[in-house]
Design goal:
- A three-stranded antiparallel sheet has the order 1-2-3. It has a two-stranded antiparallel sheet with strand order 4-5.
- It is α+β, with helices and mostly antiparallel strands and 180 residues long.
- The chain folds into three domains: 40 residues; 54 residues, no CATH class; 59 residues, Arc Repressor Mutant, subunit A.
Length: 180
């Protein structure tokens, strides 16, 4: 029986705020400082509103809402204010943004020829060079960069954390790796 096939997004690079500021400044009459200041002010105002439990809508972008978490229990007495804590900020894209994304260019990815195995030193050098030009790196980006499998990538990254070459930030699916 043939395996089931499905579509998946091949993630590109992470675009930084400064890159967005540069693009907007080049296409508008705002200067980079004004744009950076506006984005910082929006970020601060959003944080205040979300901390108050409000949902924030940025027209053309989407909706941001706070969530909370606590220990699961069937007894009401276990769940109280002290046991509830901030969970995460959820995002739901606006209809306009989803419509813009519908025009995204799609390509069929061809199976690539096997990449020759790189030495540990080559992979370390590639990762550190990547971190010099990018603010962070995901495990998936490391896999794509070096051509190694997921389990090998995890072993490499964990080893470098233990040796102080890189730092881990985040948890679960939101982990990124940073220069020390």
């Amino acid at each position: 029986m043939a395996p089931k096939l499905h579509a998946r997004v091949v993630k590109g690079k992470t675009v930084s705020t400064s890159t967005l500021v540069d693009q907007i400044a080049d296409a508008s009459t705002f200067n980079r400082g004004e744009l950076a200041g506006m984005l910082s002010a929006v970020s601060e105002a959003m944080a205040r509103q979300l901390a108050e439990g409000n949902c924030v809508e940025l027209e053309g972008i989407g909706f941001f809402s706070p969530s909370v978490k606590c220990q699961e229990s069937k007894e009401e007495t276990v769940i109280h204010a002290a046991s509830v804590r901030f969970g995460t900020v959820r995002f739901r894209a606006s209809t306009w943004l989803k419509e813009k994304m519908a025009g995204m260019r799609l390509l069929r990815k061809r199976k690539s020829a096997a990449i020759p195995e790189r030495t540990a030193e080559e992979k370390r050098a590639m990762a550190l060079l990547f971190l010099k030009t990018h603010s962070s790196m995901t495990r998936t980006e490391y896999e794509r960069l070096t051509g190694c499998a997921k389990t090998r990538a995890i072993r490499d990254l964990n080893s470098w954390i233990e040796n102080g070459l890189i730092r881990r930030f985040g948890k679960g699916t939101k982990v990124v790796y940073l220069a020390p």
